[in-house]
Each structure stands twice: as structure tokens, then as C-alpha cells.
């Protein structure tokens, strides 16, 4: 028998994901998103997300298996996100994963959503160097992590946002600027023709390795309100906001690499798609002699492959499986 095939399931927010991984290699994956259904509310509505997962989970697993050229009976272990995330949303994925593990008689592994984001990069660039610093930055997270051996050592949580996530800041400011949801990509597009030095937005740097974006969001809203009745120079506002966010994110990440003597920075999450976050991270890493790893966007945003990647590491490390009565943990600490 070859190495085990691990099915990963993700349903913590608005993406239903399934992925299949064997020996650190991605065999197939599929994602369904309920983002469009939340768009008119300007943010994720938990009840809508849960119903969408219920609808999508079966077809998404089928699609991932088809892409891999596998059948359900080929699955040797199941990994599922148990938290953190929306409780109703998590329950759908965990219930599905338990049923499959029970029916196939294979082990079940509970996975922390952030460990999944960290592992996503291994599917593109191979095993992570030990240690490395990982910046997980999306609509739901802004976390700076020190990662050693993902399957054996606990992840060290260096810092987090004290208020809004960076993606949330982009989404909320985009709304004030009259740009569509999700705001991150819209700000990025608008910023292309803007001047990043046009508006001196604050660079909030709270204690240690934490972040804070609510002051920046308020400053951007005030700046827009101050121009009521006149045409808003959206491109300049977007470029200046993006510059401020990219500056604080990369500044903190570089400081963590320096303090812990780490030679590799990994940036994951939806905001890793931001062109200025990428270019500034590249500039600063190059200047400091630090290797930068950013997985492709399909692995950056929430997906099941990243959960399968953690499951695969756990299975190969001989980790104890979770019991079939494992619970969800919506506010799971690392
Ligand atoms: O990882 P993700 O798909 O979902 C979670 O939030 O977990 O990330 C979505 C977030 C949204 O806030 C979106 O606005 C932001 O990532 N985003 C971007 C860009 N693309 C997506 N933010 C800035 N620039 C982008 N190009
Ligand atoms: Zn996520």
C-alpha cells in the first residue's frame, strides 16, 4: 500500500472546501463560496453561510475526488477544521467529516484553521523551513506566527489584530469609498493609478507584535467625509490606505524575523493577493536577506486542501486521531 490519502474539509466561514493530499502533494481540490450571497449585507451572515455549506459540502467533496481521479473508498484519513470560525458553519463540515470517517472506518483529525493557512504553502513550495515566521492576513485574520514543526510543535502566536482584520479594513473602507464588496481587490485595482503618498494615513503599531486597523479605517472615513460634495480622489485614497496597511504588516513581520533569527517569511490569506503587500514584502525581505514564500491565490484563500495538508502531516507524524465525538471550538486558541 502507498502513502495514505487524506481528505481535508473546511467550512469555518463562507468557503466550503475539500482537498486530497498524499505525501505533501495536492491530488485535487474544490471550493464553493457563498460570498455573493453575503455581498448585499456587506459581510458574512452566519445563517446563510451554514445553509450554503450544507448545500455545497457533498458536491464539493465529489468534485475534489473527481479532480484527483479517486473514489471515496480511496480515502485513508479525514481532516476537518474544528475552529476557530462560525459555529453553525463549522458544525456542517465536522458532521460531514465524522460521517465519512465513521462509514469508511478511517481516522479523523481535527485541524486548527490557522494551521491550515500555514500548511497551504507546503503544497506549492514543499516542506516549511524550521523555524519560519508566517503572516496570516485575510478578511478574518491578521496573525503573526512563529512556526517550527507543524505536526509536532505548537505554533507560537506572536501577535494579532486588536480590532479589525486587515482584509476587513479594506472591505469597510472600500464601502465608504463607494467601491464594491469584497473591497480588497477593488482597493487594489483603484490604487494602481493613485499616489500612495497623497494622504498621510496613520501607521498604527500597538504593543509587541500586535496590529490595529480600526484607527486607520476611521481616518480613511474622515478623509472621505471631509470631501463630501466634491469628487473623491478614490485612487489616491486607495493607494494611500494600501501603503499604510502594507507598511505595518511587513514592518512587524520583518521585526519578528529579525528577533527570532528566522530566514523565511511566509505570507498567506486573501490579503496576500494585494499587490503592494507583495511588493513591499519582496523589497524588505530582499534587503534583509530573508526568503519570502507566498502561495498562489487559490491556496491563500480558505480551502480544503490546506486542511488536508495538515492532516497529511499529522498522519505521517503518527498523531493520535480525534474521537468521533470531537466538538467544534469556534474560538479555538492556538
Ligand atoms: O482568505 P480569504 O478569502 O477569506 C477570509 O477572510 O478568511 O480573504 C478574503 C479577504 C477579504 O477581506 C478581501 O477583501 C481580501 O481578502 N482581499 C484583498 C485582495 N484580495 C482579497 N485585500 C487586498 N488586496 C487584494 N488584492
Ligand atoms: Zn481563513
Automatic annotation (TrEMBL):
Q: Which GO terms describe its biological process?
A: tRNA threonylcarbamoyladenosine modification
List ligand-binding residues for substrate.
136-140, 171, 184, 188, 274
Write down any Gene Ontology CC term.
cytoplasm
Question: What EC numbers are recorded for this enzyme?
Answer: 2.3.1.234
Catalytic activity field: L-threonylcarbamoyladenylate + adenosine(37) in tRNA = N(6)-L-threonylcarbamoyladenosine(37) in tRNA + AMP + H(+)
The record ties this protein, via Pfam families, to:
TsaD (PF00814)
Q: Indicate the principal place this protein occupies in or around the cell.
A: cytoplasm
Entry's InterPro entries? ATPase_NBD, Gcp-like_dom, KAE1/TsaD, TsaD
Q: How is the cofactor bound?
A: Binds 1 Fe(2+) ion per subunit.
* Sorted UniProt keywords: Acyltransferase, Cytoplasm, Iron, Metal-binding, Transferase, tRNA processing
Location in the cell reads: Cytoplasm
Top enzyme class: transferase
Residues holding Fe cation: 113, 117, 302
Positions of the Gcp-like domain:
26-308
Which Gene Ontology molecular function entries are recorded, alphabetically?
Answer: iron ion binding; tRNA N(6)-L-threonylcarbamoyladenine synthase activity
The Swiss-Prot or TrEMBL record lists the needed cofactor(s) as: Fe(2+)
* Family classification: Belongs to the KAE1 / TsaD family.
Stated role: Required for the formation of a threonylcarbamoyl group on adenosine at position 37 (t(6)A37) in tRNAs that read codons beginning with adenine. Is involved in the transfer of the threonylcarbamoyl moiety of threonylcarbamoyl-AMP (TC-AMP) to the N6 group of A37, together with TsaE and TsaB. TsaD likely plays a direct catalytic role in this reaction.
Q: Which HAMAP family match?
A: TsaD (MF_01445)
- What is the name of the protein in this document? tRNA N6-adenosine threonylcarbamoyltransferase
Q: Which organism is it from?
A: Streptomyces curacoi
The gene is tsaD
